[in-house]
Amino acid sequence: MTYQPVKGSRTVIALVQDRPGVLARVAGLFRRRGFNIASLAVGRSERRGMSRMAFVVEGDAETVGQVAKQLDKLVDVVEAQDITDQDVVYREMALVRVVAVPETRTEILQLVDIFRADVIDVGAEAVVIETTGDADKIDSLIALLQPFGVREVMRTGKVAMPRSALVKGGRDGFNVKR
Length: 178
Prior knowledge:
The chain is an alpha+beta fold. 26% of the residues lie in helices and 38% in strands. The protein has helices at 22-32, 61-72, 102-114, 135-145; strands at residues 9-17, 37-44, 50-58, 77-82, 88-99, 118-122, 126-133, 150-155, 159-162. The longest helix is centred in the middle third of the chain and has 13 residues, at 102-114.
């Protein structure tokens, strides 16, 4: 039901022009190289007319690094980098619709509270829960909600960026030695 990254997954981020067809060209580059995009998130960036993409791609460091360099050469791509080996902060978000009849709502709300999630919609027979965190946290919540009847799950995929430098003049994403 949920994606479990295989060993060898890499996270690539890219700053791209916000134009029609950019996503197709970027995804096409991965496809032509035979990579499966396990997760993809795209959204507006802090720069007007630019978007950021985060990909989780299955492959080894050297090959994915080469694809990131080739991405960097596409006309619509401003910069791209494999950030897997850097110190990064990342999150996923999920919306989960679960059956919630009066007899089970209290127990469901307790789980929501334990996971620091939020109920964002309440209906006669179901609730929609919003949760953020790493994939394991989201998977755990969904697994605990299964006995109640999970009707629908929508996940964003991983969004990531290098952690801020801990010392003045330091490089973002390089706070720990690996």
